[in-house]
């Protein structure tokens, strides 16, 4: 009788044999090769194994993975490993220091810079897509290369992303190489949590004596829920309070420029002129120069800025997105420290009043 290693019925596929016939690709392991102490293998039914051998399946190629065995686990353990951590994160980041809306090139660069500048800060990234990275997985028109004008290549040097130096600009052979490297650094930072497949649906707006009208956080929902509010009833959102929100939702589109459009509806900014026609030279400098706190508690960066400022689009050149994100991190840190000082002063005043009352 032969032993057949099978992960699941789904993993069995048909392969062409030298004779041109098709046969199941199950691996046939000689009895002598089996280690008695190893976990029991699936034993093929007596009817199946000879049939496969007879079908002329090719001889198995030896690989370093032939005796590979995973440690045992219960299904409930897998479930709890995920859910306990996710719900702990939701609890931790219900009061975030910084929320970054949108994990495109600007949002990721902001998270990366901020995680270095403020290791004490709790930074949450909310990304509506399952896959973070926004438009930075490709260059223009779905081409692979990413063009970055100097001196924007400094972040590539810092992350050790290789590029070709073309004088005034550099080229990374795959935009995905830069985006995946940046993303891996962000996700490794102990003070950053990415909530993907989650959309920012609205903003928390506060109005108090100390800070006036300001952004105090974001309203979120699973993106799949956000997309179905018109077909389902009453699917209430979740909220994350934040001392500062950085919005990097990209230019206008089905989900883009979300925060800018909401600020306009709330009357917190004037009319949105929208992104102007393409001018690479003007566009990148404008985006970096204009990266700022647009209303108290909200910093804007990346292409979302072009919507509010009417600045030109830039096409497939990415330096401004990274540098705008990095600049936003410094601006956000200033807002965070200001807010922390306000809260500390308010707490001290409350304590002093309580002490005076008690005396
Ligand atoms: C058709 C097309 C044309 C383009 N043309 C230009 C151009 O001319 N010039 C140019 O500079 N760029 C253009 N881009 C985009 C280009 O990819 C960007 O330059 C660059 O990616 C912008 O970086 P960003 O970080 O500002 O925004 P993006 O890379 O767009 O990232 C924004 C991120 O925010 C997420 N997001 C959006 N809304 C929400 C929300 N409500 N909640 C949570 N997450 C949200 C998105 O899923 C995305 O991951 C174009 C893109 C497309 C698809």
UniProtKB/TrEMBL annotation:
Keywords: Chloroplast, Iron, Metal-binding, NAD, Plastid, Thiamine biosynthesis, Transferase
GO molecular function: cysteine-dependent adenosine diphosphate thiazole synthase activity; iron ion binding
Cofactor: Fe cation
GO biological process, one term: thiazole biosynthetic process
Its EC number(s): 2.4.2.60
Record note on modification: During the catalytic reaction, a sulfide is transferred from Cys-234 to a reaction intermediate, generating a dehydroalanine residue.
Record's subcellular location: Plastid, Chloroplast
Any single Pfam family the record assigns to this protein: Thi4
Main location as per UniProt: plastid
Entry's cofactor comment: Binds 1 Fe cation per subunit.
Residues annotated to bind substrate: 106, 127-128, 135, 200, 236, 251, 303, 313-315
GO cellular component terms listed in the entry, alphabetical order: chloroplast stroma; cytosol
InterPro entries: FAD/NAD-bd_sf (IPR036188), Sti35 (IPR027495), Thi4_fam (IPR002922)
Catalytically driven reaction(s): [ADP-thiazole synthase]-L-cysteine + glycine + NAD(+) = [ADP-thiazole synthase]-dehydroalanine + ADP-5-ethyl-4-methylthiazole-2-carboxylate + nicotinamide + 3 H2O + 2 H(+)
2,3-didehydroalanine (Cys): modified positions: 234
Protein purpose: Involved in biosynthesis of the thiamine precursor thiazole. Catalyzes the conversion of NAD and glycine to adenosine diphosphate 5-(2-hydroxyethyl)-4-methylthiazole-2-carboxylic acid (ADT), an adenylated thiazole intermediate. The reaction includes an iron-dependent sulfide transfer from a conserved cysteine residue of the protein to a thiazole intermediate. The enzyme can only undergo a single turnover, which suggests it is a suicide enzyme. May have additional roles in adaptation to various stress conditions and in DNA damage tolerance.
Subunit architecture: Homooctamer.
Family: Belongs to the THI4 family.
Name of this chain's protein: Thiamine thiazole synthase, chloroplastic
Species for this entry: Monoraphidium neglectum
